[in-house]
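Narrative of activities, Objective 1.

The group set out to show that a structural description can be obtained from nothing but a protein's sequence at a throughput compatible with the screening campaign. Below is one input-output pair from the validation batch, recorded exactly as produced.
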Amino acid sequence: MFDAMATALDREGPIPLGRQLYEVMRAAVLEGRLTPGMRLPASRDLAGILGLGRNTVVGVFERLAADGFVEARGAAGTIVARLDPALLRRPAPEPAGRLSSRGRALAAVARGAARPHGAFVPGLPALDQFPGELWGRLMARRLRQSSAALLGFEHGAGWPPLREAIARHVAAARGIIVEPERVLVTAGAQGALDLLARLLADAGDPVWIEDPGYLGARGALVGAGLDLVPVPVDGEGLDVAAGISRRPDPRFIYVTPSHQYPTGVAMSLPRRLALLQAADAADAWVIEDDYDGEFRFDGPPLAPLHTLSPRGRVIYVGTFGKALAPALRVGYALLPPTLVAPAAAAMRHTGHAPPLLVQATLADFLMEGHFTAHLRRLTTLYAERRAALVEGCGRYLSDYGTLMRAEAGIQLAFRLFDPDDKAASAAALAAGIVAPALSRTVLGDTKVSGLQLGFAAVPAEAIDPALRRLGEALRSRG
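Output recorded for this entry:
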């Protein structure tokens, strides 16, 4: 048996030989090959059999004894622990992998495995424009100045200077006046949605969600066990009348009014007012996701729903992932006063807070004016890339569909004449183009066929050849 152990050791691999021997001997005990009460060779003898140093074998024996697999008997040597044979490992079927009903529903919300780079991944910013050198200097400065406040459990609702910086940012950029104490810093917008879904509603409660709509929001709501009510979206945004006819009593309403995801439609003022009226009637919260509101290319920015709700019914959710990098995982929610304390308490139990070091670095980045300058550069760059996309779609794709109008954001929706957008998306992927099907974002009975075209991460000079390949892929389908 011990000769077989010698051959099982990988002497050229990266795992230390002592670790390998421990695993081999532990498995032999659990599987009954080293039987209970069996006396093991002396450490010197076993080292000779295995071709190992004696100290290595002694260390393995000590670890096995500490874990209860063997017993050291002094001069009597070392024996295998007298474990009940009924407890030893026997061949068994693989675990069934059973999930809860919510787990099955959550796993079924497939967002796809989009490539990290290339044309035309929606929602992906220009990662090559991330100010890495500056960010590194700011983070290094924070590390040099590190204090206990950045290393402990304090500030569960967010690093206070960052909350103040976010309050200043939304006031200047979106016209939202909010006290820093009402800013909740979360692990991206997704973290905010997941927290709010569990905080504001009980399992089984009805909630309105746009149809087609954001799959990340659908996942958060499904994960909370909520009853999703798909409300169709038309040229004016979410159809409030349709929502009322389907379920007039939502617990809350999730909406992307400034730049609807994925169609790009902006919600009209009459619809916004009707939505707030419906929320008042149902005593429902409204979660306003302004996921890429920093980037607007035609006309002045639309007023957020938050500014139209004097009763504080609207919870505004934002993110820095679209302007900086998704991997930073920093988002925020602007809460009404009644939710500040319970949300802060809930944060301690969910793990949705980003690292304080990242928060402190971002606070410096905002307060020192770097973020404003970065946005100006990106807006100019994205306008150029957006124009190249619009022009190229007219040149190569006009026979297959039309671009849907959108004044803001970092992706556009291309509505296809072909009703089978999933086949069109698959043909695009075969040609090296990531263009997800719009229909994958549909939950209810809404009929939509199209492709999502993210332009922010694609250099302007690469957009034309990419669209040419996309046109050829669509043509090949006949």
